[in-house]
Amino acid sequence: VDTQSPTSKERLRGVLPSSIGDMTALRIINLANNDVSGRLPNLSLLTSLEQLIIAQNNIEGTLPTYLGLRMPYLRFASLAGNKFSGPIPLEWCEGDRRRIDIYDNAALCDEVPPCMQGRIPSYKGTALLDPLKTSIGGEVTGGKCGIAPPICGDA
Q1: Three-state SS for 48?
Q2: Does residue 150 have a pLDDT over 70?
Q3: What pLDDT does 115 receive?
Q4: Alpha-carbon torsion 80, 84, 118, 47, what sign?
Q5: 89-122 burial by CB neighbour count: b if 16+ within 10 A, else e?
Q6: Among 65, 75, 61, which residue's Cα sits nearest to residue 108?
Q7: Which residue among 52, 56, 63, 152 is least crowded, i.e. fewest CB within 10 A of its CB?
Q8: What whole-number distance in Å separates Cα of residue 151 and Cα of residue 143?
Q9: What phi, psi does 118 have (nearest 5°)?
């Protein structure tokens, strides 16, 4: 499914139907730069998925845990520029070749799991704590979940 076209003036709008999660042969989903809103439907049955590109929409909710071991072929996921919230799921540590873009999701918070360091190229526009920067005296990049607004440093 690819709706991103440089010549297209039409944008996909609305909520993704749950039936997209039944299309088990999908290898690439590219819905970037549309007006998709609501929560991401359950895509855990898409075990052949190699790329999930849903950047720059209005998708909300917590980050899906199934991007871990349940998707053995997933190599790249771009969730950037949405409205995801909460911490990074520890399940994402399963599988060793994934790169996941999550920048510009302001409500992402808490500490980045050590297993994900190096797989997430940027925390810009999030409230995530980067332990590598904070542990060596660098700039604090985020705050703890459950504190509104997120605070910097140890909570």
Answers
A1: coil
A2: no
A3: 86
A4: negative
A5: bebbbbbeebebbbbbbebbbbbbbeebeebbee
A6: 61
A7: 152
A8: 5
A9: 95, -20
Single pTM value for the model: 0.81
- Length of the chain in terms of residues written: 155
Residue 21 has pLDDT above 50, yes or no: yes
Closest CA to 128 of 147, 150, 148, 146: 150
CB 71 within 8 A of CB 50: no
How confident is the model over 45-69, as pLDDT tens digits?
999 999 999 999 999 999 999 988 7
What are the residues facing 37 on neighbouring strands? 15, 58
Backbone dihedral region for residue 110 (phi beyond 0: left; psi -120 to 50: alpha; all else: beta): left
Query: Could you tell me which of 92, 73, 128, 60 has the C-alpha nearest to residue 140?
Result: 128
| pLDDT tens per residue, range 106-116 | 999 988 888 88
